Amino acid sequence: MNEGAVFDPWSREFVADPYPAYARLRREGRAHWFEPTGQWLIPHYDDVSSLLRDRRLGRTYLHRFTHEEFGRTPPPAAHDAFTVLNGNGLLDLEDPHHARVRRLVAKAFTPRMVEQLAPTVRRMAAELVAGLHAAGGGDLVAAVAEPLPVAVIAELLGVPESDRGLLRPWSSAICGMFELNPSEDAARAAVQACVEFDLYLRELIEERRREPDTDLISALIAAHDEDGRLSEQEMVSTCVLLLNAGHEATVNTTANGWWTLFRHPEQLAALRADPAGMLSTAVEELMRFDTPLQMFERWVLDDIEVGDTKIPRGSEVALLFGSANRDPARFARPDELDLVRTDNPHITFGAGIHYCLGAPLARLELSASFGALLADGVPPLRLVAEPEWQEGYVIRGLRELLVEF
After folding, report:
1. Residue 348: φ, ψ to 5°
2. Which residues pair with 34 in a beta bridge?
3. How confident is the model at residue 2 (pLDDT cuts 50, 70, 90)?
4. Residue 214 — pLDDT band, cuts 50, 70, 90?
5. How is the chain split into domains, by residue range?
6. Is the pTM of the predicted complex or chain greater than 0.85?
7. Which CATH architecture has domain 12-404?
8. Bridge partners of residue 398, in order along the sequence
9. Distance CA 47, CA 323 (A)
10. For residues 149 and 244, what is the distance between their CA atoms, to the nearest angstrom?
11. Could you give the C-alpha distances from 7 to 16, 40, 79, 309, 389, in angstroms and in order?
12. Is the pLDDT of residue 256 over 60?
């Protein structure tokens, strides 16, 4: 282990392997001030898990304070399209609005709807794998990892097949704003994507109002109860969040997971020998071992203490999911890949009121994707070249993963 490893989210070396730096953070304390972003880094599992559930923190502070009262500068007016779109999604709402919107969305985004999608998801995965096989190999990210969740969420929302090529570029541009200290170029790209995606979804919502279908957008339009209904902006923001949060995680878990398996050939051989018996625990372990969401940020709404460190209201904490999932205080042999690990309460999907609503769908997609690549009649995948990581750290994934059969 590199004892001198430091937390440096803009370093290619750190992004490629942040885990030695996490180990150092855990050894050296429970809360660390990180000046470049003005955040408190929280590396331990118990602290991350507790703070995710702590109502003294929030994804936003605007339900209790103005920007000025909270000691923060309002986002620039040029970012309004992003600010409004992101601020009305479940991930950045707090109660009482969060509870209302989540309840209404949950009425539409039901376990039954996910279950009904299962045959379609497995068919899509099998077709994508068949195409990769027929080509003799290629980029696993572009051929399987990306198109599957995009197709699934498009199917779920009711986006016509002819329009589905628009979704991933919009999502990628918007997610650029979730990185640490995004550049103005990244901000401009995100704002433009928000404008285009918002307009597209409003037109699609209007079509579904005129002619309802069996898709999620039609169900969201119909979702209402005695406390009120979703506004159009909340519907738009929910659809964008489902695409961004849902498929970005699935894309990167798939690619990161296969890169992990290639580096653990004994574990991969065992999984190939018994995919039916091991797939469920394997998917969970791959999500723990190298989570695609490395950091989740929260605002401190009331003074808190983490260990001996007092963190005042107005601060921002950065909860290090990747570190928490490798904490030896919670996981036995945390730096070892164990595809049959059963005691595995990873926090890849978060916790508390912001626990990922799409977790069942993500698990379905991952099981279908890995299952199709491990199915009888599909030759074993082989790695062609060591991959490079994308520049992003918060949402961490590979540029490509070149494979052959």
Report:
1. -60, -30
2. 39
3. low
4. confident
5. 12-404
6. yes
7. Orthogonal Bundle (1.10)
8. 389
9. 11
10. 10
11. 12, 12, 29, 19, 17
12. yes
